[in-house]
Amino acid sequence: MMEVRKLYYRIGEVAEMFNVPTSTIRYWESEFDVLRPRKSTKGNRLFTERDMRYLQVIYQLVKVKGYTIQGAKDAMKSKFNKLEENAMLIRTLNHAKEFLVDLDKQLAEKQKIQQG
Fold it and tell me: Which of 10, 43, 64, 109 is most buried (CB neighbours < 10 A)?
């Protein structure tokens, strides 16, 4: 199945994708100059695909690897392309894992029906 991409993601959607509160996303925005979400006429943050790539790297560094905010900033300055590549690989592998787990459940259900 092809992943649907949007032009803009609302902060609630972004927070849900990363399983963090919206306050964390706002905090990261204030700490990382590379995050520059657009604002709607109502002032709501609208994150682009570019922002999402940066957020993926920030999430991996801070939440997964345990970097401090300053450590994450330093790492992003020195090796962002490699970090982004790793973050995208992890994302792809997680999608594949979810697909395989779902497929395994479907096969198990099918076996139950055939046996039963």
Answer: 10
3-state percent breakdown (helix, strand, coil) of the chain, nearest 5: 70, 5, 25
| 81/69 Cα distance (integer angstroms) | 18
- CA–CA distance from 24 to each of 21, 29, 68 (Å)? 5, 8, 14
Pick from 47, 41, 39: nearest CA to 17: 47
The residue among 101, 65, 103, 110 whose CA lies nearest residue 83 is 65
- Over residues 51-89, the pLDDT tens digits come to 998 898 899 899 999 999 999 998 888 776 666 677 677
Task: Please report the domains of the chain, with CATH numbers, ordered by start residue.
Answer: 9-115 (1.10.1660.10)
User: Tokens standing for 39?
Assistant: 């604002």
- In angstroms, the first-to-last Cα distance of the chain is 31
